[in-house]
Amino acid sequence: MSQPTTKADNIDTSKIPDVTNLTASTITESVHLINSSCPNERSKFIFKSLVQHLHDFVRETNLTTEEWMTAIHFLTDTGKKSSDLRQEFILLSDTLGVSTLIDILNNAKPPGATEATVLGPFFTEDAHDVPSGESIASEGKGDYLYVHGRVTDTKGNGVPGAVIETWETDGHGLYDNQYPNRDGPECRGRILVKPDGNYSYRAVVPVPYPIPGDGPVGKMINHLNRHIYRPAHLHAMIKAEGFETLTTALYVNGDKFLGSDAVFGVKTSLAVDLKQVDDVKVTKARGFPRAIPHKELHFDFIMATPEEGAIARQKLSSTWSKA
């Protein structure tokens, strides 16, 4: 947004609506009038709706000054808790279901395509490139997991040149950027799929974990008498020329928190089974250092083109507008 004019002499107040002597029933319309000169029609529409709903909320709840100040301090603390490696505001959006709602409305997919889900607050930009078949995790970070499958279009054709960026917790339920002594990416990597769309990499078995409970969002969750756990999952962001970026995650069936994810990210189509592989020869053949049993996860990611995505979102928007 452009900076507002700050010199008082440059402001022509004769064209600004009079907003004095306001009442609880007239202030909302006065704010709409003051904001109506915004030259950006989309911004004007968004702020009008925001003000309307916010004012209606205050009237509906008969909000007290103390309650509003509590909300202001809460948001201030949320900002202070955020950093380059931790985004408390994303966590707030996630735990209120806003991130999932926005994701549903903006990332509708055509039938058969892999569904999207929330990015989460632990994505970083510094993942290493990992050759297909290699490991995203150092030895000792958790139980062995072999992940493989294909990246295809909605017609079943492989998507050459696709890049899978993946990240997960270690076996202790912590992302690398939750450790204070982090010196580089761990349990995350970028995998270039093969020309036929096949991909594979070594990882660790994901485990359920609590979202950060030491900040304002954690205090809010506790106040609402909710648990702070996410079910075990493996994140994936897939990019390919000519296709919409797919941000998704795979959730492990049988996890006790699968039906009550603290950030509302689980979708049935993204729930997967982990296969037990007891043949240690297969473990060694897949490149794991120790000859022990491991888990296997097979999943085919199906990507949509921008045209297919646009049609799906148009259909969703039409359905939503009629509801």
UniProtKB/TrEMBL annotation:
Which Pfam family is an annotated match for this chain, by its short name? Dioxygenase_N
| Molecular function via GO | catechol 1,2-dioxygenase activity; ferric iron binding
Q: Tell whether Methyltransferase is among the UniProt keywords.
A: no
Q: Tell me the keywords, alphabetical order.
A: Dioxygenase, Iron, Metal-binding, Oxidoreductase
| Necessary cofactors | Fe(3+)
State the family it belongs to.
Belongs to the intradiol ring-cleavage dioxygenase family.
According to UniProt, the name of this protein is Intradiol ring-cleavage dioxygenase
Species this chain originates from: Macrolepiota fuliginosa MF-IS2
